[in-house]
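Async update (no meeting this week)

Hi team, since we skipped the sync, here's where things stand on the single-chain job. The sequence we agreed to prioritize is pasted below, unchanged from the tracker. I ran it this morning and attached the output directly underneath so nobody has to dig for it. Comments welcome in thread, and please keep replies under the output.
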Amino acid sequence: IGVNVDLFAIEATGTLVIPQAGQWTFGVNSDDGFRLTLSNGIDPPYSMSYPGTRGPADTLVTFNILRAGAYTMRLVQFENTGGAEAELFAAQGNKASWNATDFRLVGDTASGGLSFAGLAGSIQTNVQDVLRNVNTSLWVRIPFQIDTLAGWQGMTLRMQYNDAFVAYLNGVEVARGNFTGTPAWNSAADSPRDILASMTYQTFNIGQHLDKLVLGANVLAIHAMNVSAGDGNFLVLPELSLGKTEYTPTYFSRPTPGAPNTSAVFDVVADTKFSADRGFYEEPFQLVISTATPGATIRYTLDGTEPTATTGIVYTGPITIDKTTTVRAAAFKHGFQPTNVDTQTYIFLADVIRQSRDGEPAPSLPNGVFGTFTTDLDGFVYADDPFGTSNPTKADGTRSSSEGYGGAGLKIVLGPDTSAAASGAFTKTFTLEKAGLYGVWLRYRMVLGADLATTEYGELVLQVNGTRYGADTGTSLIRRYGDGPGGSNLVYGWSFYGVNVNLNAGSNTIRVGAYMTAAAGSSAKWVEAYFDDIIVSQWPAASVNGQRIDYGMDPDIVDSATWGPQMRAALTQIPTISLVTDLRNLFDPSIGIYSNPQQDGPNWERPVSAEYILPDGSKGFQVNAGLRIRGGFSRSTSNPKHAFRLFFREEYGAAKLRYPLFGDQGAEEFDNIDLRCSQNYSWAFQGSTDNAVVRDNYARSTQGAMGQPYTR
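Output:
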């Protein structure tokens, strides 16, 4: 401490007590890297790490702790050069980032931090004064009552002990641990037991001794032993259980060796089947989803989320697929294990080429609004005087079949010759399954009559759940004053506006409208308002946490006389990978990995479906996996295109991806795959001239020259 030392590592070990099962978030602030492992000897170890060099920074991981108790902890921190530090802290629950309210240093029990284990936490009766340095043996008698002897089919004794014991039921030995031979008044344990083993219940099946029970008073007696009279650790903590079994054939979805079973199911729902496989399509079609299990309910989503037994759309008949669509489906039946979630991506290249050309978010039906007004008002209802005015005769709203942005749209006319202010608006109420951040986007256009004075104005308004949004004066979409009588109409052409809004689960309202000040004395004093493409989407409409987001295809390319006609063919020259997930996993301000690109580690991994789609229609694959942001410098929020890394693990489905992704020359199974490895060496971020891909080719050629799997 206080001495500058480079190139070293430290190891810290101990026994950590986790008091409750469930989610716990552990964090390590390290400079440079570290690895933390927690193990209770029963469940798979919990581990987290940062394997590289860095300045002081946090890595947080949320573990689903299956059982409370003592865990062997091992923390290794290594230092390269420069400063060095390591802190270990924890909080109960799932925490995306550190905060001073929930987190405490491990071992800081005075402030509420997790404690390192000794046996003291398990002791209710302290016998140190009568046992230590006196004897190695102690006798414990526990009386209990039995009201009936009928029907008992099993009996178990669970023991926490340090260091040994022999157990008797009504005077008959039924179990022993860490002791051999004939017990005597001063018997000692065969060997010492470590603290972790002592605090972990050991289960003994003593069902063969059910006949030793008697109706009424019974006694469980424990002859507990220490390894020596002077040993400072001693524990005896028994738990006797009787059980009855009702034999019903069931399935368990997860093995739990040495622990109680999880909830059981009667059978497994047959997997969902799709009438059309993932791929490229030119014409609309009807998609049929089915399962062979009678009475099962199929639920599906179109917004990337996973359907559950209570969320998603109930499948009642074929689904019309007439645009680029991702369908996720699963089948459910009460008392049955549901199917896994199947994902199918259907790509219409005409949509892809024109997607989000002006930066608008994509619609994410059914959770949102997609108002294009092609055939009707799309649920919008017009009303006069919504903004505190009282001039209904000078306001009118209609769906115009030809005055929208390239087609139909909404139109509001205020005036002419208004002696009092006038307003009008279209309002729609819509329902969302999930609360969270949504993108709200629309196009608007305004025209002012030629005689409006320089003190008279018109404005366009956007309201969501009663709150106004807009970048102009008065939180308006646009507010403009007239230029005085005798001129021409003032035309403010089509513009678009996007904003991110936190919306409620359940009912929400969106309103678009126009306002005009009192403007009397001329029939050329009026305001016309036009609205189109009103979207409420789970895709953000503006940056999140400073992260730039650019969805659109470049109009300079797709509209080019040279390159535009080549786009469809170009998009089918190589395979396509479709990543489908709940959009909150990407863009939520708190948990989204794309909106928090500088966060790393397992706590910033999200579930995703990955599909490999071959343009010739041959079989690719679909696999459920984990998704993280990949990279270092390219994690900057000013970079609109980040790299991804896919992780294949049993918790998602397959433990590995087994597919010859790179043909017969490459590997055929993968633990993880990186996508878009050019990262900051790309047209999108600073290095447009640096992505020569020479290093990629060199690395592949070197790999092949060493006789290892590689690709061309």
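Quick observations from my side:
The two ends are 52 Å apart (CA to CA).
The chain has a mean pLDDT of 89.
Reply here if anything looks off.
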